[in-house]
Structures are given as C-alpha cells and as structure tokens.
Amino acid sequence: MPAHSSTKLAAPRRLLAAFNCRRYPSFRSAFVTVAPSRAPSRLDLFSRHLAPKPPFLELNTPFSTERSARLVDDQGNIIKPRSPPEPKATPKTAIEAEPPAKMSNQAPHPALLIPGPIEFDDAVLQSMSHYSESHVGQPFVNTFSEVLTNLRKLFLSTDPAAQPFVISGSGTLGWDQVAANLAEPGDQVLVLHTGYFADSFADCFETYGVKATQLKAPIGDRPQLDEIEAALKENKYKIMTVTHVDTSTGVLSEIKALSELVHRVSPETLVVVDGVCSVGSEEIRFDEWKLDVVLTASQKGIGCPAGLSILMVSGRAIERFKARKTRPTSYFGSWKNWLPIMQNYEARKASYFATPSPQLIHALDTALKNILARPVDQYWAAHTATSQKVKKAVADFGLKQLASKPENQANGMTAIYLPEGIAPPDVIPSLLKKGVIFAGGLHKEIASKYIRFGHMGVSVTDPNRPDITKAIEALKESLTEVGYKA
C-alpha cells in the first residue's frame, strides 16, 4: 500500500480503537498488546470486534443445560468420549446384523425414546395431513368440540364448572397461564421442587411479579408430606404447584395425598399440577382428587406432535380468576380472552380470538380417540407394566436410578445413572447406531452422570412395535462396548 494511503487510514484506526476500548473493555488489552512496529490491520480490528462475548443472561433452558453440563465433570474438566476397544473378529449380533424391524408405515428412523416428544401412531400423523379448512367453519368447530369433550374423559372430570383449554403453544405456556391468570403481583406461591422444571416454574412466577418459595428435596427424592404441611402452616400461599413427573430426574410425586393435605391444612390454596411428563402415562383423577389445574402438552403421553398447550381447570380456579383485582398480566395467555372461546368451541359454536392449528387439533382428536378406545385405566396399566420391565432390566445391568425409592419412580420414563467413568457421550452415539435415541442428563448438578429413557405412548401400547425390547438390548450392548461388565 502507498505511504500516503497508510497515513490516511491512521486516524480512522485510532478512532475505531478508542471506540472499541470504551465499549468493550476486553478489547483494550487485546489492542495494546500489538507490537509497536506493526499497527493492527482492519481485518484484525473487525475480527476482535466480532469475537464471541458472554451472553447478557445465562440461558436457563433444557437444551443449553443438556448440551453443555453433561460434558463437564465435577471439577469443570471437559469429558471426552471414551474410545471403544478394538472390535474382535466375531459375528455381529442380531441387533446389528439384521435390518431394523418396520415399526410403522413411516419412513425408517431410529426409535425416539426420550421423555418427549415420543413416537407417533400412523393414524395421528395421517390426520396431520388434513386439507386446509377454516378455523371457524362448522366441521372444524365440531372436531374441536370433540377434543374438549374427550379431554374431560382423559382427566376423568364430569364437573360442568370445570373447563379444558387447548391453545397453540408448548407445555411452558401452561406455566404462563397459571402465573398470569391465577396469581397477581405480590402474591405468594409454594413450588415443590423435584428437579429442573420446578426452578423454571418458579422463575415464571417471578417474571409476573409473584413471589415463589421453593421447597426442595435431595436429587432423586421429593418433599415429604410433613415438610409440606409445615410450610403451608407457616405462610399463606395462593397456589401450591407440584411437578407430577419431573423430566429431568424421573421423580414421581404423589398427587392424591398432596391434594388431600392442602385441602385439610390450607383449603384456600389452589392445587396446580405440572403434568407435562405425566398425563397419559400416570394416573390422574381430576375431580376425585380435587385438583384445580393440570397443565400438559401434546407431545408426550398423549402421543400427538408438539405444538399444543393443554389444561384442565376446575370451577374453583375459574371463579378465583374471575375475582382477581387486576387484569391478567399476559395478553395471549389471558383467560379473559380464551375462556369464552373454549366454552363456545365445546358448545359447537364458532368463535375467534387467535388462530388455532386445525391440523394439530385433528392430530389431537385422533390421539385422544386412540387412548379412549379402552378404559383409561388400561392405558395407565400398560405404562406401569412397561416401566417395571425397564426398571428390572436396569437393575439386572447393575445400574441405579436417580429415583432410588420405588414410590418415587415414574411410569413414563427412567433416569439411569451410568457406571463410574462412563458419560452420556460414551453411549448415546452407540445407541443411535443401533436405532435407538435416548436423552442425556438434564439436571445441572449431575448431568454428566446419567441418561434418560422415555417409554410412553405407542411404543408402549402397540404390541407390534419392538421399541422397548430393542432399547433394552441396545443399552446393554452399548455399555459392554465401552468396557462395562454387569
């Protein structure tokens, strides 16, 4: 470059450096270390300017936790996947040599056995291909009405004052609806903690100006009834929430006994159940157990693609909502907007606030009809039987569960501690090669020590699908390949 060109660029360089030094303190040290004999090039400056910086707020999501924490040990060292031993010249096992059994009419794919989303029945996916139709046309309104009626049957609710809700969104939208509609800024709520998702529910309440107090238990356990009773007597809580099955730990909470306790000790407190990972796979008797809200999502035990937030709300909770002194602190999630819509749809009357997804509603309609083709008790029983089969296999392998007590163990998933010295990256890729997908650990404190096996829906209830047996065999083989001997 000619000398005069270099002179012309000197001033802009100094200005850009000064600007970056003020705006990005870390840039100052990088800039001043350049040798005085060579001014930094424009490329150097832009490279430093675009260098990744820590996020403004740490992500509090299952995705970020699962993808990062599981690769770090207790001392913060990165865990590298173990190299499997050199393969011996032996014939391949049946699970490796034979092509995977055809699970359905869907394209060949690994069996998705995580705690949601789960495998879907062919009929559910086919119903997603329904032609486009008006969301206020009578045929769609009739379908939506059947969905709401069948949700009452799934939750075993015949109380006409209660109301099911189906809104486009995920299970997380259920938290927002509870926090925005049933609590007001300054209210106090009690959150029972059995894993990651209690932290998130509490954070949701705080976002809406509601004070959340968490009652925590050791990892793999749940708060005990005497502890909960003492907490309820110590303070007046507008709401008590409980995660029926925490997806991060596989811990099951005892809903019936909890509700009886609340109604005896603090009858004004609403009982809210996070059933995202339990509805369909666990027993829930909404009216009999006097629950106020059970919130869930479409993609787990119900067996429908993700995209729908589903709630069952008691008449008592709706009256509490109507008596609130302030407006709901959400617009999209406000029951002021949604309650008349749900009531009209159930009465087969066209109504509108925000556009639902007709295709997802058709899929949910099919999924619910599949579940209710038998008594719902039988659907639960199938999950219980499969859970016992999985947990026996885990014990036979010499492995332990996060939920060590049988009464704490969920029927729709199993969280499994890996052997000492083996981490999720050592086995999950091997499982995938064998046609099975498990999830890594999610609890921040122990994420590098365990994996999660989801067993819900059609993988459990369809006798022609080999998903569960195949997964058990694949887990045993994958552990053997990295040197573990049961």
From TrEMBL:
It holds the Pfam family Aminotran_5. This is alanine--glyoxylate transaminase. GO terms for cellular component: peroxisome. Belongs to the class-V pyridoxal-phosphate-dependent aminotransferase family. Its cofactor is pyridoxal 5'-phosphate. Transmembrane segments: none annotated. One of its GO terms (biological process) is glycine biosynthetic process, by transamination of glyoxylate. Keywords: Aminotransferase, Pyridoxal phosphate, Transferase. Its EC number is 2.6.1.44. The keyword Transferase applies. Residues 122-443 form the Aminotransferase class V domain. GO terms for molecular function: alanine-glyoxylate transaminase activity; L-serine-pyruvate transaminase activity. PANTHER family: ALANINE--GLYOXYLATE AMINOTRANSFERASE 1, AMINOTRANSFERASE CLASS V. It is an enzyme of class 2 (transferase). The keyword Transferase applies. It comes from the Eukaryota.
